[in-house]
Amino acid sequence: EVQVVESGGGLVQPGGSLRLSCATSGFTFTDHHMDWVRQAPGMGLEWVARVRCKSHTTEYAASVKGRFTISRDDSRNSLYLQMNSLKTEDTAVYYCTRDGNTYSWDYWGLGTLVTVSS
Amino acid sequence: DIQLTQSPSFLSASVGDRVTITCRASQGISSHLAWYQQKSGTAPKLLIYAASTLQSGVPSRFTGSGSGTEFTLTISSLQPEDFATYYCQQLNDYPITFGGGTKVEIK
Fold first, then answer.
1. Does B103 touch chain A (CB under 8 A)?
2. In Å, what is the CA distance from A26 to each residue of A21, A51, A71, A103?
3. Which of A23, A79, A109, B1 has minimal CB crowding within 10 Å?
4. For the segment A70-107, what is each residue's pLDDT rounded down to a tens digit?
C-alpha cells in the first residue's frame, strides 16, 4: 500500500524558516518525480516545487523561487522542503504528491499546515 | 505561464443530474490534463489523467474529454458523494498550473 505522510508544519514568524518532510512507502521511490503543492485557507491549489527522479533536478513556482529548496533522499524514500524567508502569504496546507508517470499526481499526503504569523 | 480557466466556478445541481465542467487552457497542452476532486478538509483525489483516462477505482460516471485547449469533465448522474470542488491541472509545461476550481453543491 502506497503511503505518503507529511510532517514538520507549524507556526513560524515572518522571516523565519521551516523544514517539511514527507515519508513514503509502498512503491519504488526512485521511479517517481515528487512535488509539493499548497493550499491557502479557503483558496485553490498551487504547485510549489518539483524534484525529478534519477536526475534530482528541480523546478519552482515563481512565488517561492530563491526562498524554498526541494530535495529528496532516495535512501530514505523521503522528500523535503526547506522554506526560508517565510511570508504571511506562505500560510497554507502543504501536500506532498507523487507523479504517477501519467502527467498527474496519483497519491497525495494528508497535508501539513504551515502558519506564518507574528 | 499556461492559464487554466474553469467554468462554471459554482454549480448547483440535484442528485441524478448530468453535470459538465469546462477547462480552457491559454495555449495548447496536448492531452496533459488531469482532473481532481476535493472534499472539504481532505486532500485532492485524482479522477482523470491524460484528459480522458479514468484513474483506477474511480466510478465510470466520471468521464473526461478534450485535447489542445478545451477540456471537459462530465458526471453522468450526480451522486450524493460527488458534491465537492473539482480542479483541472496541466503538467504540459512549467509552472504546473491549476484551474480556479468548480464547487458543486446540492440544489
1. no
2. 17, 19, 20, 20
3. B1
4. 999 999 999 999 999 999 999 999 999 999 999 999 99
